[in-house]
DNA sequence: CGTAAAATTGCAACATTATAACCTAAGGAC
DNA sequence: GTCCTTAGGTTATAATGTTGCAATTTTACG
């Protein structure tokens, strides 16, 4: 059983949507239909999804199907902190714990494609160690690990 | 003075070329003119460089100027372990310590664009911590930090 | 209300990055 | 030399992402 089916998707999605709505209200931003639907789709897929895949899904539902539509929605959601971009995959994925500012860090299974967010604590610890050694000021960071998840390792 | 000028470029380049040649000999691979020149260019720029920038430079020198030329050379050099790809920039940069298998990790200055390779030791430590917490098997990892380098912080 | 400013969306074109497919040329083994 | 493998040339195309501007919707405010 893939990790993506070990839990209640609908719960994931509704929680994510609630949090996003709350964040918008707090910041005076608008959760418009396209933005809402893109976030839902990102969560429904529940694994990193390309912008053009999302665009195709939107298109099937009667939304506008030009690239700027989905990229603008994604930019908004990234800014809001409810999705992450995985640059080695050119793909987007929902954030597990939105509302707490943190960097992008994922473990991506080569077999099933699921992406698991890394604990912010470990990323912070790495930052601290690096800052001590070098005199950089770290503003953002992005960590992408690949390998086999527990399930796929067991099945292999 | 930018970090890229605090040292002797020519030394960087010749060392990198020597190592690459040695690695090729050890593995029975061919360091052809295009491959050699691409590696030299990557080192000459001494900061992350896009494939199409490299292609333009090659073209000026009479090399073939079609995309596959540079992508094939870059694939070879990546495989050989003498360059890294920085996926958040879609760019390539020379490896500081080739010949020792290691993951991609860079600090990239937002101001001057220089990319400094992170110590493999710290990356390994992060891996170990994560593996203890989760039961992933990590095969590759990629770490891209941004911020200001020491020089640019001072100048700002 | 009514209107003006701001934010969002629609739309068309374009830019950038990367790959596929197929063929030719060069290098090495025998 | 002949054969086989590797590398490079060439053309076309795929995949990803952006710019610019007009039209619309939402909000702010008198
Ligand atoms: Zn997150
Ligand atoms: Zn898996
Ligand atoms: Zn390296
Ligand atoms: Zn700098």
TrEMBL record, chains A, B:
Keyword flag Transmembrane helix: no
Pfam families cross-referenced by the UniProt entry: FUR
GO CC aspect terms: cytosol
Alphabetized InterPro entries for the sequence: FUR, Fur_C, WH-like_DNA-bd_sf, WH_DNA-bd_sf
Gene3D superfamilies documented for this protein: 3.30.1490.190, Winged helix-like DNA-binding domain superfamily/Winged helix DNA-binding domain
The entry's keywords: Cytoplasm, DNA-binding, Iron, Metal-binding, Repressor, Transcription, Transcription regulation, Zinc
Cofactor note (record): Binds 1 zinc ion per subunit.
GO biological process: negative regulation of DNA-templated transcription; regulation of secondary metabolite biosynthetic process
Location of this chain's protein in the cell: Cytoplasm
Domain of life: Bacteria
Oligomer and partners: Homodimer.
Protein family membership: Belongs to the Fur family.
Descriptive protein name: Ferric uptake regulation protein
The encoding gene: fur
